[in-house]
Specification:
Elements: H1 9-19, E1 28-33, E2 40-47, E3 52-59, E4 62-63, E5 67-71, H2 75-90, E6 98-102, E7 107-111, E8 117-118, H3 119-124, H4 132-146, H5 154-163, H6 167-179, H7 195-202, H8 205-220, E9 224-226, E10 235-238, E11 241-244, E12 251-253, H9 255-277, H10 279-311, H11 322-347, H12 353-356, H13 361-381, H14 388-397
Antiparallel strand pairs: 1-2, 2-3, 3-7, 4-5, 6-7, 8-10, 9-12, 10-11
Helix pairs in contact: 2-4, 4-10, 6-8, 9-10, 9-11, 9-13, 11-13
The structure holds 5-S-methyl-5-thio-alpha-D-ribofuranose and magnesium ion.
Magnesium ion binds next to loops.
Length: 399
Amino acid sequence: MSAYRTLTAADAVDYARRYAGLSDPETLINAEEVGDGNLNLVFKILDGRGISRVVVKQALPYVRCVGESWPLTLDRARIEAETLLVHERYCPQHTVKILHHDAGLAVMIQEDLSAMSIWRRELLAGRYYPQAARQLGEYLSRTLFYTSDFYQHPHEKKAEVGRFSNPEMCQITEDLFFTDPYSGHDRNSYETALEDAVAGLRTDPDLRLAVAALKHTFLTKAEALLHGDIHTGSIFVAASQLKVIDAEFGFYGPIGFDIGTAIGNLLLNYCGLPGLLGLREAAAGREQRLQDIRELWQAFAEGFQALAAENTRDLTLAAPGYAHRFLRKVWTDALGYCGTELIRRTIGLAHVTDLDTVADAAMRHECQHHALNLGKMLILAAPHIDDSSALIARIRQNG
Ligand code: SR1
Ligand code: MG
């Protein structure tokens, strides 16, 4: 294990030459820093023809989008690499390949995905990938089933909960999802036009109670090894392919959190589309998002149930009908977490381009209000929304 130092572009090239396992390492000559997320350095490593061959990703010892005033654990790089390796074991078709990692340097080398596109960017441009939601549902069913108590031996599961203990990253989620938006934290960020709506979040006792329950579940329910931050900016898509990256928030938590975050990001796009594409153009995209949500849940739930029927190793959990009953609770949890993702991405520290890049201010505020109302409705009504058809009906009623 190496001692930590921040890599320069030249270091990153040298590192990739040594550790990427390429048959022609000497052809790597250049690095381009392309990190546009909130936390890390990301270098594409290019050969002499300017073709990106691998990606070197390094965690910085602080939150990149805030600066050195917010220090952050480097152990997140180990957690990210190890989470992706576990997820790759169970779902290689939809998980980025980790070629090498070093916990001391907080660095990993990943396969290059330049032939694919970030899903969020495609959704923003109104480009549709009809297979993507089903593939994401498959990724979620496989990674979450095989790391759950349905499959893992209780001793292994408990050891894995320890290996993936991720307190600093979980605290970011605990604060940004469940505390800041409902308590007027300085980190929140929104325009004055939203002030009344934001004040309403702080003063709604039923909402505060429902969010408290969601946070409590997040803190205590170690159901499976989650991705922990599965938004459309962490997913690459192509015509027939989908790959998930960026699992530094991985930990053993409630399965509904991953499902809800994923659905929440599809809904953020649903809310932003009229502002991004215009009302007429947005209509088709919105129908696609609703279809995506239906298919994501269906692929996840059917996949999980099929795996449970075939592969449940715990005799008690194998009781006929139990997996079905368990998934009902996952669905309710997911709707609540989906609501918290909509709200925190609209008024909290970390926003999404689906809403923020709407150029016309009045339209942007309308899209943002829509996201807040939808988020609130989902948090409050989650226990009364029985299935994806009922969810879609509620979304349509909400505007
Ligand atoms: C301080 S990190 C802010 C956000 O960026 C990441 O992508 C996560 O979504 C986190 O909540
Ligand atoms: Mg991320």
